[in-house]
Amino acid sequence: MDIKKVISEMTLEEKASLCSGSDFWHTQAIDRLGVEAVMVSDGPHGLRKQADVADHLGINDSIKAVCFPTACATAASFDKDMIHELGEALGDACQSEELSVILGPAINIKRSPLCGRNFEYFSEDPHLTSELAVGLINGIQSKNIGTSVKHFALNNQENRRMSSDSIVDERTQREIYLPAFEAAVKRAHAWTVMCSYNRIDGVYASEHPKYLTEILRDEWGFDGYVMSDWGAVSNRVNGLKAGLELEMPASNGVNDARIVEAVRAGELDEKVVDLAVERILTINERYLQNRKPETVWDKEAQHELARKIAAECMVLLKNEDAVLPLMQGDDIAVIGKFAKSPRYQGGGSSHVNSFKVTSLMDALEGVSGITYAQGYDIVTEESDEKLISEAVEAAKNAKIAVVVAGLPDAFESESYDRAHMGMPKCQNELIARVAEVNPNTVVVLYNGSPVEMPWLSKVKAVVEAYLGGQAVGGATKDILFGDVNPCGRLPESFPLKLEHNPSYLTFGGEGDHAPYSEGVFVGYRYYEKKKIDVLFPFGYGLSYTTFDYSNLTVSSKSIKDTDSLVVTVDVTNTGKAAGKEVVQLYVGDKESTVFRPVRELKGFEKVQLAPGETKTVTFTLDKNAFAYWNVQLHDWHVETGAFDVQIGRSSSDIALSEEVVVESTVEIPQHFTLDSIFFDLMKSEKARNAMKPLLDGMSSTFGADVDEEKSDVAQSAISNDMAAAMLQYMPLRSIVSFGGGQVTHAQLQAMLDQLNQ
Ligand code: BGC
Known about the structure:
The protein is an alpha/beta fold. The strands form eight sheets. It has a six-stranded mixed beta sheet. β3, α5 and β4 form a beta-alpha-beta unit. α5 (126-141) runs parallel beside α7 and α12 crosses α17. The structure holds beta-D-glucopyranose (BGC).
């Protein structure tokens, strides 16, 4: 289709109508010009294609589909290849169902464990989020299906999600909240971006030229179209001007009429409408030219893939006395409602209508020695003594008790935030009571976000299974019995208590005002800096085998910020089982003039190792690994100095470290005034030289020279060091008043004029 030509033949009304959906899920068609409608659908971890009654909150049924593990789980895989494979499977399903774009991935950063949508998001860390987003997008788009990376931008809470106003400083945005979107656009070429509901600095994200045009298009080179989150449009004309091409869902003609009116009134340039239509049609064509409705969607095969992925995501948090893996034939009491009716996905727009679900009890069918007790109910928090007693009885008679617990649906969902970080009281009590009678108690958790574990010291093992998709039961069995060696790592810190979380003081906002006052210190960046103990750190996870690190090498001990640094490390499987290790590379700036975290994840690789096997893992670091966002340059900047390049088992367990000096090639321009303080002036060689003639000509009264011959009292009152320390924060202008008339303002100004040239 010659898109430009077709647009030139459209009426203004037709063009305006293309700027919003024709209904809940389709773009507009214009039959007379051969413009076809295409369908988009949620996402992100399975299809929610609605045939009949449509909604954006997951209320009405959609077609039967495959529910893969949710993002909180897939992030724990730390596996770029596996997430690519997941993307390919989603892409096939979309081709088969004739969906042009799947609404995901959702890549907002987990600022607080309380965000109701954390189960749909990847991580507290921007590097991990970026790598996984790129893998998933590439996988989906390799099938010629578009993605819609969401929710752009700064949408990290559900509280007042359609009105809250995120207030985030520039550096924090660039270092924490924007990198994954940048990677999705620059590296994975996401076909579409979904703007979020919230405001940013008072302006709706759906009307924000800074984000939708300046950053997205001018800076990152985005060439797809932006669609609104469902109902995120306030002022449609402002949205179009700012760079929002497609409003979803349909406004039933209301906003089309506004667009036409605005053009006719000269408020909106028709070219803006033309461009929006061109962008939408270009992406639609990308799909239409490559659609393959004959694609076979093998749901059974995808169910098996979902099981494989779920197992690769589970995180073994504790395994005292190697109580896991379990042995077939042992007497095992399986306890918990979730063992029969697993919680495997979250509520809201991502809710998939699974074509089948396998629970742990389903997966254990035919295994001898298994007994079951329900233990708790999910409709109430209150303990049911009868259910607990039955469970305790079953646990008493078994060698091992496996309690499957976690968060019920109502505890975390799209549209509202969690009230606390606790599990239901009835489940906490159940676990404690079971552990009292059975010393080999294992807890499996199905939840989308960190929970407190008051019973942790009383149980032998804990498996964090997150929300593992419809095949979670089979995957849980694979992990418990050692058919799969656990290889997930936590993509987020589990704080000891909610109050320790850095966003605790301001999360959720004061009314609509939502300041991100913790700045760049999100998750482990904060806990490491404050040396606050956590329940489990970011990157943590055990295995049924053990790994050792050796031979950390760096290609050079000293580089320029334009060079790249090659880092290698050997990792050895020192145990008896084959397994996978996630090799994590962190970088820390040893000395810096800006507040920086102790270390930040800058690389990770998952490696499979047979017992005794050693592999060398190679990382290539560039400027980004050392840089921070400089608000004066509005760009990344590396401060000259020493950095630690570290290999860690988690953010708080560093195995090996090497120091590297990085030299900056960018000089930050400095401008001095009469108000500049001596501390800053003296740091600049240029300023020191410029000031020298003036200072040399002055008597010592203003300078730091204290007469060492003076009385003891005078000396102890102010030593040379003290005087220097006191003077350093004085402004240059104080030479005039305190210098006894030896230097004039005019002289200082002349010196500054020369210095600032
Ligand atoms: C959600 C989006 C979703 C859309 C369509 C909105 O409520 O925030 O993530 O894609 O609905 O269902």
